[in-house]
Predict the 3D structure of the following.
Amino acid sequence: MNENLHKKHTSERTLFRFFRLNKWSLLIAAVAIAFILIGLLRANGDEVKTLLMKAINICMECIGIG
């Protein structure tokens, strides 16, 4: 019984240590995921199509085709 309690305490301590050491990385990842979801929810078909056409035109102008 005491050994199982020790394992549980050790794993909780390890998880807490992981979050403490990586708090900024986790925060940045959470913010990035939130912005991606907001962008996906905002986008409609016309906006995505317009953005893609502008990107294609810029690429074609850079390599001298368009």
Observations:
- The chain has three helices and no strands.
